[in-house]
Every structure is written in C-alpha cells, then in structure tokens.
Amino acid sequence: MSRATRVLVTGAGGQVGVDLVDTLVGSVPLGADVSFQPDERPVESGEFEVLGLTHHDLDITDRDAVRRAIGAARPDVIVHLAAYTAVDRAETDVEACYAVNARGTESMSMAANDVGAHLIALSTDYVFDGTKGSAYVEDDATNPLNVYGASKLAGELLCAERDTMVRTSWVMGVRGKNVLHAIAQRAASGETVRFVNDQTGTVTLAADLARALATLVRERPGGLWHVANVGTTTWFEIAQFAGTTLGRDEEFATAIATSDLSPAPLARRPARSDLSTEKWQSAQWRALPPWREGVVRLLRDRELRPGSSS
Q1: Which of 67, 168, 200, 201 would staple 272 via disulfide (CB 3.0–4.6 Å)?
Q2: Looking at the domain assignment, is residue 296 inside a domain?
Q3: Full-prediction pTM beyond 0.90?
C-alpha cells in the first residue's frame, strides 16, 4: 500500500477549511453532495494524512514561524486557505490585509519550495474590475477595485509558477458566517430583506469547493484555475431563491441598487465578476453543481451545525 499523501491545511477553522479537512479524512461535510466527485474518485480511507492549522496554531505573517512549521511537518501538499477576508475593513487596515494575503502567501510558497511540497492557494474574483461584460477566464487582465482584491492579486504574483492558484467567489458554507445564514434567520423570524441586483457573480458552496480542492491535491496541476458552482446570479436572486426555498412569498426580498446601500460600503465591488470554469471542465473534471442545488443543501443542513439553534 502506498504512503498516505501528507496535506497541511492553513485556515482549517474557516468555512472552507473545516469542509476540506472533513473531505480529506473521508467524511462528508454538512451541505455536501455525496455524488459530486470531480475526478470520479471517492476519497479512500487512509489516502490522506491531514494536519489542519488555525490562526492560533500558526501566524502566517511571521515568515520564520511559517518556515519552522512547514519544515517540521514536511507535507507533500499545502492547501493555503488562511486569509484576511474583511473586504470593507481592509480599506482602512491596509497593512494588516497585505501582511496576510500577500506576504503570508509568499511565505507559504517559499516554505513549500524549501521542503519540496506543492502549494495550492485560494484567491478571489475581486482581482477583476467587472467591466468585461462576460464571465472572466484565467488569463483575463486583472484590475482590482479594492484593497482586499489588490492584496489577493499581490499574493498570486508573489507565488511561484509551479504553485496552483484557485480563484473562487461568493463562498458559502454550512459552518461559518456568511450571508445565506443571515437570510435564513430573517426568513425564519418573519422579517424581510433588501439585496442588490446590480452585482453579478458566481456562488461557491464550501463543501463543493472542498471536493474540488481534494482533486487538485491529487493532481497538483500548477497555474491558475477558476472554481465555482455553475450559474451566474445576483445577491437579490440568491435572497429571493432562499426565501422561496424556506417558504416565504415573493415579498420577502426586495431588489435595490448598490448606490442605495446605507451606510455605503467602504470597498468598491465589481459590478460583474462571474468566473468561467471552462478550463476546469476542459481538464475532464466534473463541473461543480448548479448554485441553486448547493443553496438548497446548505439551507437543509444548517440546523445540523454544532450549537445551532435556528
């Protein structure tokens, strides 16, 4: 029997991290589609040896600490999910954002090279400005509108060519905080919601992304990859669909323009930043399921979260 692939996951306590660790050890995360196997291969028992690190375990802004941790673990693959994700706060917290998303990612790439590990790092659709008018492919020109997007792009550029960079968007998991949980809570309490209908993108369910990452851990392709669930949508359409799924009528969600938000967000968002996954599918991997299917699964399983009371 071949040796288990040793995988180190940073950001293991985040909504993608918890689902990825579950996936790699052979468990089915909450919100997952058990039939979704991008490479048609279920995870085998003992296939992966997983070390999950949270911020409390490793400060990725400390380059020496990163080198020591990676040197001690000597993984075959590093899946780097730790990130500064507070998009609006980043506008006034620039140094901290870049320390994590740019220099922290660079440190991971350098440490991976030191031990001969393959790095898989997560990036974002916010590297684009939204002016293309159609879905973005991997080699489209980047032009981030906000500090968060600029910091993630800097992280991409500081990585080695051999590394695998995964751009994803509008991530939602059963575990962790995200907009879909807020929508569900409002629906259950009888309240209504207002969401913008002039920001278009692609939803990514954390459990589906985790399974896609497991495929990349096996394949280690290198280069840029866009990974998201099938289908383009808006935040208003997501809220409207979630409300209907939870038994609310059409009055539950109201469409507004970004300019109507009060208070106005500090960070500019691209008007259209949906990601094309044609490259992913051209590699003969199955596309991630349609986003509506994923939202239904998340809403179905959210009450199974540890400590959930709603």
Answers
A1: 200
A2: no
A3: yes
Q: What is the pLDDT along the chain (310 residues), one digit of tens a residue?
A: 589 999 999 999 999 999 999 999 999 999 999 999 999 999 999 999 999 999 999 999 999 999 999 999 999 999 999 999 999 999 999 999 999 999 999 999 999 999 999 999 999 999 999 999 999 999 999 999 999 999 999 999 999 999 999 999 999 999 988 999 999 999 999 999 999 999 999 999 999 999 999 999 999 999 999 999 999 999 999 999 999 999 999 999 999 999 999 899 999 999 999 999 999 999 999 999 999 999 999 999 998 888 775 5
Structural domain includes residue 25: yes
CA 71, CA 115: separation in Å to the nearest integer?
6
Rounded Cα distance, 234 and 197, in Å: 6
Does residue 38 fall inside a structural domain?
Answer: yes
| Residue 14 host element (H or E) | none
Question: Does the active-site annotation cover 136?
Answer: no
Range of the domain at 69: 5-177+203-229+272-289
Catalytic residue, from 98, 126, 136, 148: name it: 148
Q: How many domains does the chain have?
A: 1
Beta strands in 253-304 (DSSP E): 253-256, 288-290
How far apart (Å, rounded) are the C-alpha atoms in residues 100 and 37? 31
Count CB-CB contacts under 10 A for residue 190.
8
Q: Domain for residue 237, yes or no?
A: no
CATH code, domain with 49: 3.40.50.720
